[in-house]
Amino acid sequence: MKVKVISILEDNYMYLIIEETTREAIAVDAAVSKRLLEIIRREDILLKAILTTHHHWDHARDNEELAKLYPGLEVYGGDERVGALTHQVTHEEELKFGSINIRCLLTPGHTVGHVCYFVWENDSLNAPAAFTGDTLFVGGCGRLLECTAEQLYKSLMEVLGGLPKETKIFCGHEYTTQNLKFASKVEPENEFVKEKLIWAKLREDEDLPTVPSTLAEEFLYNPFLRILEEPIQKFTGKSAPLEAFAALCKARESFRKPKERLNPQAMLAFEWGLFDPLLQK
Ligand SMILES: [Zn+2]
């Protein structure tokens, strides 16, 4: 199994999971079909299915177009708002593509129908992978748009947090530097945050992705997975985990790049998928 990281739009990631013996492939968040088709042609692979994490246009925009180009293409997601959806998955439902296994994990928080996909290959020494969309980011987590802090907390701590620690995390956006700047405000003494931030800035300078991380690493520097740690509770002033988590989400809302703060309307439009995609890029 090979995972291709494809950087698209402003800061999104689209992925291709390739079964190397059969040359069959599964796309994750196929928002830019043109880029996907180029790679499919170049790699000489056959697209079998799309896994969509959530319905926002920057994750699902080109599902319909791909479904037209590939009759019989299977489109998986957890929300009927996902374009060209053929299979609405349930929590812990398992899918199989040759030697590749996929467990669908319902992870409400950013949207009500958000799904993360845990993927592993039979008889492989490689670590499993999780495609976490806008639920878990490197160093952070998605914004609460349709759900409560409690739902997102459970999705992060119980559903994703319970995966094997060596799981590779492939998330939906390149937000790592900004996430870690917030993390360093929350935990200024955390050496793992400092190190990862230096590394992420170097990657940014080289225009290289910061994915994947591993779940084990995330527990070291991602404040949203470290709610039970003393510095986080000190920062939020709350000792009850759920209250501390909600306070952290709130603090993050006011921690934005000045550009975003100046133009809240643009942020909203982006998050709710109101932009005309042609205008956006
Ligand atoms: Zn989104």
UniProtKB/TrEMBL annotation:
Highest taxon, organism lineage: Eukaryota
MF GO annotations: hydroxyacylglutathione hydrolase activity; metal ion binding
Entry annotated with the keyword Methyltransferase: no
Cofactor: Zn(2+)
GO BP field: methylglyoxal catabolic process to D-lactate via S-lactoyl-glutathione
Residue span, Metallo-beta-lactamase domain: 11-173
Database matches in Gene3D superfamilies: Ribonuclease Z/Hydroxyacylglutathione hydrolase-like
SUPFAM superfamilies: Metallo-hydrolase/oxidoreductase
Keyword hit for Metal-binding: yes
Pfam families named in the record: HAGH_C (PF16123), Lactamase_B (PF00753)
InterPro entries noted in UniProt: Clx_II_MBL, HAGH_C, Hydroxyacylglutathione_Hdrlase, Metallo-B-lactamas, RibonucZ/Hydroxyglut_hydro
Protein's UniProt name: Hydroxyacylglutathione hydrolase-like protein isoform X2
Gene expressing this chain: HAGHL
